Amino acid sequence: MSRKFHFTKDTMKRLKDFVADKEPADEEAAQAPEKAAFAVYARTDVGKMRASNQDALVVDDTLRLYGVADGMGGHNGGETASAGARDGMIELLQGKEPSLDNLRGAIAEVNSRLFRQQAEDEKLSGMGTTLSVLWMSEHFMYLGHVGDSRIYRMRDGKLSQMTDDHSLVEELVRAGMLTQEQAANHPMKNVITRAVGTEEGIDADLAVEERKSGDLWLICSDGLHGLVSDRAMESILSVNTPEAAADLLLEAALKAGGRDNISLVILRDEEGAR
Fold first, then answer.
1. pTM
2. Which of 99, 106, 166, 246 could form a disulfide with 41 if both were Cys (CB 3.0 to 4.6 A apart)?
3. C-alpha dihedral sign at 227, 233, 239, 244
4. Span between the terminal Cα atoms of the chain, in Å
């Protein structure tokens, strides 16, 4: 049973004086919000041409796992695949320490689950999804990537693409058979060569990068990077807060036509090594 206490006026005065001594002298300092050492801003939009949003955002602050999955395989298939990749990664990495082995294992298991699901349900036949994720430890960023969504890092004012697109045109660019300009307008630019859930096995690109204070990370679907150039994205990220940049990048993709679903996650890291 709860108990109530009654204090005399003299006791109440001493208590108030004690509390007052413990309060900050500067009221503004007491009310000022603490600057977040690590902040995440995520946006997703159906775009202007699609009937549904088949992208899924991976945002789990407890795991410090962030990413984008861009589904394919029709209305039901695309949404099922991207949501399955998101939910599966979060489930499978619970309680595990960030590492390349754990990340590789989770992606492989998610792939197996989706492959079995589409094999057993005719309505989901052919479904799959891209998957690009960052998993953050105390000192490192672990990158996992399949498909043509992308991970970028902005360091010291320069935006760098940290993943290779698993797409037909990018394979041809890397082979020297197409220029970047030709690839940008190629009729088969949306054909991807790797996806999660489409085959029994999966070959994921994995990497680890040391964290550095001041880094910005951008993870996005091709609904953004397919319509907004790297130079334009770098410009937006350079002169705006990450929160404002998230809104402006989404707006830029919509203004450029919004032909696909648009998804992005921006991470600002102020607690990495200096």
1. 0.85
2. 246
3. positive
4. 53
Structure tokens at 166: 């698993």
Helix segments in the chain, DSSP class H:
9-22, 27-31, 74-92, 100-120, 168-174, 180-184, 222-225, 230-239, 242-255
- The CATH number assigned to the domain holding 247 equals 3.60.40.10
Q: Which of 194, 189, 216 is nearest to 205 (CA)?
A: 194
Neighbours of 170 (CB within 10 A): 19
- pLDDT, tens only, 92-102: 999 999 999 99
103, part of any domain:
yes
Return the H-helix or E-strand segment holding 269.
strand 262-269
21 token code pair: 């001594």
- In sequence order, which residues have a C-beta less than 8 Å from that of residue 106 and are 6 or more positions away? 88, 89, 92, 93, 144
241's tokens: 């807060």
Here the tokens at position 11 are 């006791």
pLDDT tens per residue across span 217-244: 999 999 999 999 999 999 999 999 999 9
Number of domains in the chain: 1
Tokens 């630019």 belong to residue: 189
Residue with tokens 């320490």: 97
Does residue 12 lie in a domain region? Answer: no
Say if 77 falls within a structural domain. yes
Contacts of 120 by beta carbon, 8 Å cutoff, 6+ apart:
none
